[in-house]
């Protein structure tokens, strides 16, 4: 699995390189800015891009904007943003790209298990979607007006759906029956005009589609 890594902090970049290689990834390029990221992807055609958000020259959202552009031109390219920040302006654009397949947004300080982190990267390369719950909450908060269509319980269920929980997991968390959760999910999809599909990422895609419509 070939990876291009973009991280401007040298020690973190080297540490991530070592970690990825220890778990069988091939880091074909490790760069420190968005321009280098674009060049490395053109040269190496990787399976996965793992990038920070704030990089030179402006240290604002260069990495995230580069990720959005890469997904626009290469929708099949798996991209995971790994950052300390939730940059709302472009985050929904990234997560919405290629219908939310093969994309992730993780927060550095919330990665507490190395093997789980590596498993998440593999999941994204396989076409999955991985979004930190804190990112989900902030994006949903940004879309407050469309959420008015949902009840308080439905908003709670929607947030848990976006975090990747199954109906059974949601039922345990909310101390309700699986059937009750199923009814809430059906109601959410109906209110947000999201017809059920057979897509494996449907639960997260439901939230992404909602963000599209509300943005």
Automatic annotation (TrEMBL):
Residues 2-123 form the Response regulatory domain. InterPro entries: CheY-like_superfamily, NreC/VraR/RcsB-like_REC, Sig_transdc_resp-reg_receiver, Tscrpt_reg_LuxR_C, WalR-like, WH-like_DNA-bd_sf. Residues 143-213 form the HTH luxR-type domain. The modification 4-aspartylphosphate is found at residue 52. Keywords: DNA-binding, Phosphoprotein, Transcription, Transcription regulation. Gene3D superfamilies: 3.40.50.2300, Winged helix-like DNA-binding domain superfamily/Winged helix DNA-binding domain. This is Response regulator. It comes from Amycolatopsis silviterrae. The lineage of its organism: Bacteria, Bacillati, Actinomycetota, Actinomycetes, Pseudonocardiales.
